[in-house]
Every structure is written in C-alpha cells, then in structure tokens.
Amino acid sequence: MMLLTPGASRRRSSFAAGPPLGKKRPLGGKQAGASLRSVGAFFAARLAPLMLAAFCGAGSAQTLEFEQSSVKPGGIPFPFLELDVPYVKTADGVVERMLDLAGVNEEDYLIDLGSGDGRIPIAAVRDRKARYGFGVEIVPDLVDKARESAREAGVGDRVRFEVQDLFETDISSATVLTMYLLPDVNMKLRPRILSELAPGTRVVSHAFDMGEWESDESDHRDGASLYLWIVPANIEGEWNVDIDGEPHRLSLRQTFQRLQGTLERNGRELLVEAGAMRGTDVHFLVRDGAEATQYIGRVAGDSIIGLSMDSKHRQWRASRDAGKVVSTGAEGG
Ligand SMILES: C[S@@+](CC[C@H](N)C(=O)[O-])C[C@H]1O[C@@H](n2cnc3c(N)ncnc32)[C@H](O)[C@@H]1O
After folding, report:
1. Which of 22, 221, 282, 287 has the highest count of CB atoms within 10 angstroms of its CB?
2. Does the pLDDT of residue 307 top 70, yes or no?
3. CA gap 65, 71 in Å, rounded
C-alpha cells in the first residue's frame, strides 16, 4: 500500500529547476537557491518521486504517470511545478471511513484540498448524496482525470474540480473539509481553518494531525490514521450569565475546543471545569462545595442559549460583553 509519511517532504515532490518557472506564491525556502541548482540537484528532484514510489510500493504508477505530463498550467510546464504534497491516493475503504467520520450527508458542501483524482468529492456526492463537492488540485492532468471520473459517476453537475493552489482556495463555504496532505501543510492551514470555517464545520485529515489542536475523534482504517475536528465557536471573553433570573459573571479562556475560567457566584469565584466546545455546543461543570452543576448550551455569536443545567431543569443564558470578544489564541497557529 502506498502511504504518505512525514518524511515525504515538499522538496521530494519539487520538480522546479529555476525561479522564472516557479509559482507566484513565495514558497518558504523551496525556491531558495533554485537558480543555482546544479545538474545533480535537478536529478535529485527527478529521482525523488522515483524514490518515493519505490519506498511506497504498489500504486506508484500514478506518481510517475503524472510526472511525465507536459500540461502547462498558467504557462508552467508540469515537471517544473512545485508540489506541497506528492500525489498519493487515499484507498477507497479509507475514503469511506473519512466520510463516515465526518458524517457526510445531503446538506454538506465538501471541499477536498489537494484532490488528486477526485475520489473524495465524487464519493461524497455519489455515495452520501452530499449537496456539492469541490476539489482543488495543482496538477492539471489530475483535474482533467477527476472531471472525467465525475462525469462517468453521473455527478458531474454537483462536483467541481479546479486547478488551484490550495493555499489560495476560499474554504469558507465548506461544511466538510478533507485533507490528505503533510504535517507542515496542515499546520499552515490551521489558522485559516479556525478563523474562516463556520463553527461546526467538520475537518477530516488522513494520516496527519494538527499539532496541539487535539482531534475530537480519531480512527484507524487499513493502516491509515484518520482525525476529525469540529471547528469550535469562539467563546472566549467575559459573559453576563442569567441563572434562574439571578445575574452571574462568567470569564472564559479558550484554547482550541478547551475552555477554562471562572463563574462568579454570590461573590465567590468558582472554577469552570471540563469545559469544552463541539462546534457551537458548549458544556462545562462548576462545583460549589458538594454541589456539581453541569452547564450545557448552544452558542450563537455573543449569546449562549442554555439547553440544560443539572437535573433540576434550571434555566440559564448568557451574553458576551460588547467589545470584549478576544481571540481564542488558536488562530495564530
Ligand atoms: C496525497 S495527495 C491526496 C489526493 C486525494 N486527496 C486523495 O486523498 O486521494 C495530495 C494532492 O495534493 C496535490 N497538491 C500538492 N500541492 C498542492 C497545492 N499547492 N495546491 C493544490 N494541490 C496540491 C498533489 O498534486 C496531490 O494530488
């Protein structure tokens, strides 16, 4: 089976031989010294996919087949394109599990970043009846192949593929985002995922995590690690809380989906425990002596509608102090 490993770095999949042919986007060192690259370095770049293919075993034909392409996106001959991630397919069984993890359904707009032959958006629409699938891919041959496969699968009207740099793709409409990239690429995308995707959007990554942003769920299928994150609403700040008509102050700090803070009650500061977000759903526990109260609510911008509060069915709701909305600390990557 062919797998991506953290060692399959960008450089391995880089075929660039000179700066004028490189992509417009500054590539963080990938281009450095490219104009002076020796013949040896050029061959190293050419040999890299072969080595990767040899390392990965079965399925390597795809890597080589597309390496030979002469298609020119934006006038750049494909052999000179710099890939941030080499082309390796997700096995069909793993695609299924990714869609299961994300709970893809007919309301979803799925975007696959680095869509390869298009199998993930096509499966989402064909098998899960997703509303729409969109794949962005830098290699034109792969985009052509994906479009053809979509037509063959009878979903050409609800799946779109574009030759595009995934770092420049507008991801804000996605309700599900899928990725089979590399660790540094995931990390580079993380701040955008947190700030541009609506709370509740599901993000599934094949093989690689997103550092200290712990996944909400994970799984293994056919030797592949899979991770699911639910984009959390930003709930950090100072809140006025109404509990059965009595005013309280809630002060929250947020790191990704985890919450810490205090609830001021009768002049005492009580610790917020086990605080967590799942999309727009919030829950935390507050202990006052022997009494432990579970708060469950739903966030809508600067309001929280309390859904339940312990077995006594007390009511609670909260509103955030105007102008006190602060960063969760996570967006900065
Ligand atoms: C590991 S493959 C995953 C393919 C597909 N998503 C799958 O799971 O079968 C990564 C894909 O990202 C594409 N890619 C690499 N750099 C890219 C970039 N900057 N923008 C868009 N696609 C890119 C590669 O050409 C490759 O097809």
Report:
1. 282
2. yes
3. 12
